[in-house]
Amino acid sequence: MGEAADSQMDERMEALGGRFYREGPTAEVVAAWEALRRAATPDADPTQRLRLIGLGARIATARGDFEQAAQILWDALQDPRLSDADPWVCLAATRDVAAALLRAGRETEALGVLRGYLADDKEDEVPGADNFTARSVLHEYCRERAADEAASAALTDFVEELVKRSRPAKRRRLPATATCGELAELLDWSSRRRGWKPNPLYDRWEALLEKLDAPGGMPPEARAEWEAAFQQTFEGDKLPNADVSDASLWLTLGAQIAEREGDGHRAVALLRLFFTHPQAQDRSSGDAFVVSDYFADLLLRLGEEAEALAEFRYRLEAREHGASSVAARLLRRHCEDQPEGEQASAVLTDFVEELVRHRRPAKRRRLPATATYGRLVEILEWAFPPPAWRRERREEA
Fold it and tell me: Could you tell me which of 10, 60, 77 has the C-alpha nearest to residue 39?
């Protein structure tokens, strides 16, 4: 599929996603998705194909057909041609297939999916996300069950394994089988930081996040609840006195709402507001790192290249683990979205060369003052090659 066809497919997917968000899983939306699926050729961009498959799974989930949602994603994850998809899109697919399998009553297969993902080495691509994803999927599953319902021995063992990963120095033993309520409480405890206290705002954020992609769009009362809390706690001179973690959650949620409403500049403004918080200005906190990834990606998608590169530089200067890999991944995707033969800016070319020197200081590959986007993709792939598991699946294909 050529660049023009890829771009056209992206536009059709975006339009269908917006329609699903507004109307829900109507018969017309399902038919439109089926038409797009038939139009996607096997040699299409793997990230684009996996996003299309993920949209189909969300439509099936909204219709209550968890079996179909699980099967759509399961087949996709077994396809070696999709192993080169963006790692965050792969992560989302892994999370969604595990959740769908659990809801379809296929617990053994769901735990196998999560265990396989934990076994793969993806730390440079999605730092810390694998363990968090498994915990969040199982926490949601356990909370959906009756609190006094007995969990299986396999689920109990897996939850205990996850807790050991996140809190290796502390042990909370469980019986051979525990209740779903006990597992939910244990997963909750394993996620808490030292000095944790109950946080009503977090509970509100979690409830609103579940409504973000509700069929037909976020309900107006949920949107109004976000706005009211924003004005009460974070707007204007209130932000410096707010907890930085609360600010990161609430403002990021606001940016996601704005994006879905088609207002990318409003989303950027909310994220930029977060970085005026005293504890976020130097990007040294974990909360700031998470928001920074989203901020830089959004800036690139809106064409604000210079500010996006400045955001990446903050991360590199902070010497955060995985910062160069995150920047390379987002920039590679940005360059792949541009015409291959078009000249990139001198600023972008210089930054890519700096990333390469940072990653491979003993090897030099000089670039001209400006290079094409295709050349930048090539050198980023050389300096930040896919991990062994992905190379093996590509060779199998």
Answer: 10
Task: State the Cα–Cα distance between residues 88 and 95, nearest whole angstrom.
Answer: 10
Taken in order of first residue, the domains within the chain and their CATH numbers are 3-127 (1.25.40.10), 141-196 (no CATH), 204-291 (no CATH), 321-397 (no CATH)
| CB neighbour list of residue 9: distance below 8 Å, 6 or more residues apart | 1, 36, 39, 40, 44, 48, 52
Whether residue 88 contacts residue 112, with contact meaning beta carbons closer than 8 Å, is answered with no
Amino acid at 28: E
Burial of 197 (0-12, 13-18, 19+ CB in 10 A): exposed
Query: Among 69, 149, 147, 143, which residue's Cα sits nearest to residue 106?
Result: 69
Dihedral (C-alpha) 168, 192, 133, 285: value to the nearest 10 degrees?
-100
Read off the pTM: 0.56
70 vs 158: CA distance, rounded Å:
20
Q: Which residues contact 255 (CB under 8 A, 6 or more apart)?
A: 266, 267, 268, 270, 271, 294, 298
Residue with the two structure tokens 């069929």: 215
pLDDT at 382: 82
pLDDT tens by residue, 346-379: 899 989 988 888 777 655 556 677 789 999 988 8
Distance of CA 158 to the CA centre of its chain: 23
Of 287, 306, 301, nearest to 346 by C-alpha is 306
325 pLDDT above the threshold of 70: yes
Angle at 169 between CA 166 and CA 171, to 5 degrees: 85
Half-sphere exposure of 42 (CA within 13 A, CB side): 4
Q: How far is CA 106 from CA 10, 71, 154, 355, in A?
A: 33, 11, 12, 43
